[in-house]
Design a protein that fits this description.
Blueprint (H helix, E strand, L loop, with lengths): L1 H35 L2 H13 L3 E4 L3 H15 L5 E3 L2 H9 L6 E6 L5 H12 L3 E6 L5 H4 L11 H10 L1 H10 L4
Parallel strand pairs: 1-2, 1-3, 3-4
Helix pairs in contact: 2-7, 4-5
GO molecular function: carbohydrate derivative binding; DNA binding; DNA-binding transcription factor activity
GO biological process, one term: carbohydrate derivative metabolic process
Organism: Streptococcus pneumoniae
Amino acid sequence: MTKDILELESQKMSSDTFIDEIKNNYLSIVESTRKLIDGRQIELAIKLIREANQILMIGVGSSGNAAREFESSLLRIGIISKTVIDTHFQLMHTALLKDNDLIIAFSLSGSTKEVEETLLNAKRKNVKIISIPNFKLKLATQKKFTWRLVVQAFFRVVVNPIFDKSYFFRSRFLGSFR
């Protein structure tokens, strides 16, 4: 009996330790993400999203999944967007965009040729671009686009201010959300 109690206590301590390790890992991720965030870029991203006539999100592979997740987050707060993960369709959709539209490009590598080609086509049409790579892009790539945002927690940082309950409530019921 005493042995069983000691064993249970040991398991509880190790599970508490495990939970603390997970908590500390997430706190570390949040802190390192915070260091990457430039408040002016976040404000610009929010402004571009709010003012865009159409929002096209692009990405290939895992980056496409991130784009779909962000599309879902925007839809929950009443902003309609479209995610395209096929590179040929990305080019086709971009051909139809205008200067009051927005492309949000997700790229883990920051160097997918087809995505870069799509963004260059969008830039030629003066479409606004938010590029979200997993790490800082090479300087040559950075200069090609309107601006870049390097944030792993982009969804929460951008969606939460848009979703601010008081703003959302006023705008949804007063018709001024978009």
